[in-house]
Each structure stands twice: as C-alpha cells, then as structure tokens.
Amino acid sequence: MKLAPALLAAALMIVAPLAATADTGQEPKAGEPAKTKVSRSTGPSVAGVNCRNGFHCLFYTDVASSKFEYFDSVDHFNGNRFSGGNGDGAGEPVDNNSWAASNSSTGNRESHWYDGQFHSGFLFCVNPGATVHELPDNLKDRVSSLRLRPRTSVRCLSN
Predict the structure, then answer these.
(1) Residue 46: its pLDDT value, please?
(2) What region does 53 belong to: left with phi over 0, alpha with psi -120 to 50, or beta?
(3) What is the spatial distance between Cα 158 and Cα 130, in angstroms, rounded to a whole number?
(4) C-alpha distance from residue 32 to each of 26, 39, 84, 102 (Å)
(5) How far apart are the C-alpha atoms of 50 and 64, rounded to whole Å?
(6) pLDDT digits (tens, 9 = 90+) for 111-123
(7) What is the pLDDT of residues 100-150, one digit of tens each?
(8) Do 78 and 113 contact (CB within 8 A), yes or no?
(9) Could you count the other beta carbons within 10 Å of the beta carbon of residue 26?
C-alpha cells in the first residue's frame, strides 16, 4: 500500500526534526547550537539523592546538608540561598558555595554546571538520576550557573 504524496510529505516533516546532529563530545562554544544525541529513553529518570523529581540540586556540603533546587537553566545564582536538609549551610549563598550535586530530571536532561555566570567556564555535568556526593576539590565552591541540556556525549561526574 502506497502513501499519498501529501501524507508522505507530512510524515517527513514530523520525523525530520528528530534527526540527531554529529556529536563532538565537547561543550559547544558561545553562540553555537548544542550538538546532541537523540535519546532512546522515553520514561522518567531515576531520582538523584535528596532531590525532588524534575529538579537539579546543589548541596552546601553533602546530600544531607541544605540544598537549592533548580527546575530549569539559570544564568546566575545571585540571591539564591541554601535551605532545608539537616540545616548545615542554611541561609548561606549558593553562588560559589557548593560541594555536591544531584540530578532528578524527568525530561532526561543533563545538568551542566559552570564556573561563571551566563554559562561560561564549563566545570562538570551530572546525568539524569545521578548524584555527585562530593565534588572533587578543584570543583568545590566554584559553581555559578546551570544549563540543562539533552543527553550529550560529555562524560559526566557520578560517585
């Protein structure tokens, strides 16, 4: 059975945007579109430790300490303060002041954390469902912005 040309054209218009671009494995430069792989996962990811479903969390010291939850990309953490958890770090500023991170994305998005505001100076990423219980010493107290991305080939942290 053959599809009518109009139906075939409509089907191609729906499928064409799903095509993946080449993946370089590197963080894109400013002004360049992100090059991503198409994810085959359609269900929600497993939740990261102490981070509500759908959120990306930074913790003051460890995943039991005070945290701040982000639902979407954030250009800067100015004015954000830690709260909750065991109270350790409650009221402290989030900017350049975190030692752990968790990703509970329900949209299969990676958390990409940056040293500078407005997503400059890529530091590390966290896969959906993963938790970094303790950042390496060279990454502690440096995170200043967050960009959420579809799954990429960048190697993300987890421990």
Answers:
(1) 64
(2) beta
(3) 6
(4) 12, 21, 38, 27
(5) 7
(6) 999 999 999 999 9
(7) 999 999 888 999 999 999 999 999 999 999 999 999 999 999 999 999 999
(8) no
(9) 11
